[in-house]
């Protein structure tokens, strides 16, 4: 996709953090961008910000990735408005971190249902539209998809699963001309897990950095596919 102007993207969890950073980069390229959030108000507020950035178009949709019908409806809204879907960014995610002794079944379910099943729902809902456009799927995993850590059983399970799932999807869909990549960031300055970005986060990956990586992937020559991209801060934070 050397020329991204007027290409259509759907970004789950796009109202803040990584999803919004990717949306901003796409708007700067003149793309048409739909973002989803569980809150319509949050989606609308993010869209207002996006319209200040570039020459693209933006749309906010209320949709929970844990609800397959909601994902089907989100894709329908995008197709009804713009007639195509070229890019799916499966970004929505949550994190619950606790020892297996303390982790609750509800926390486990929320993590797996959002980070893994939610991506399955998003891709399943979009696959026919992406076949028609020979589009691009990008899932946002984590370095926690290959590196386990204490109190990370639910999060590790979801992200290890997401990395493997995405790679299998890549093999399933490449014969249709669909490219599939998983991006695996390390520490990112976002609102994830109740954190509020601040000046001390300067050493971390910034959402706009992942936006730049996304644009670079979309513009890469179609003969080449970086199927898994690991991203780390250049320097660790000072303790």
TrEMBL record:
Extent of the signal sequence: none
Ketoreductase domain ranges (all copies): 7-189
Listed name of the protein: Short-chain dehydrogenase
Classification via InterPro entries: KR_dom, NAD(P)-bd_dom_sf, Sc_DH/Rdtase_CS, SDR, SDR_fam
Family statement: Belongs to the short-chain dehydrogenases/reductases (SDR) family.
PANTHER family: 3-OXOACYL-(ACYL-CARRIER-PROTEIN) REDUCTASE (PTHR42879), 3-OXOACYL-[ACYL-CARRIER-PROTEIN] REDUCTASE FABG (PTHR42879:SF2)
BP-aspect Gene Ontology terms: monocarboxylic acid metabolic process
């Amino acid at each position: 996709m050397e020329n991204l102007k007027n290409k259509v993207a759907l970004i789950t969890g796009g109202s803040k953090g990584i999803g919004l950073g990717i949306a901003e980069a796409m708007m700067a390229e003149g793309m048409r961008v739909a973002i989803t959030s569980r809150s319509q108000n949050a989606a609308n507020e993010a869209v207002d910000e996006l319209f200040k950035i570039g020459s693209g178009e933006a749309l906010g949709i209320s949709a929970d990735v844990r609800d397959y019908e909601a994902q089907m409806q989100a894709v329908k809204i995008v197709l009804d408005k713009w007639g195509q879907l070229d890019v799916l960014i499966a970004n929505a995610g949550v994190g619950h971190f606790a020892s297996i002794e303390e982790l609750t079944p509800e926390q486990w379910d929320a993590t797996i249902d959002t980070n893994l099943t939610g991506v399955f729902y998003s891709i399943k809902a979009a696959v026919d539209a992406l076949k028609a456009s020979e589009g691009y799927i990008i899932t946002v995993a984590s370095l926690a998809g290959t590196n386990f850590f204490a109190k990370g059983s639910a999060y590790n399970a979801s992200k290890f699963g997401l990395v493997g799932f995405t790679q299998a999807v890549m093999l399933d869909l490449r014969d249709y001309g669909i490219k599939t990549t998983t991006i695996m960031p390390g520490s990112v300055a976002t609102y994830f897990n109740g954190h509020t970005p601040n000046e001390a986060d300067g050493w971390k990956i910034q959402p706009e950095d992942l936006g730049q990586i996304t644009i670079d992937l979309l513009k890469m020559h179609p003969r080449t596919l970086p199927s898994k991209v690991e991203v780390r801060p250049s320097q660790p934070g000072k303790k």
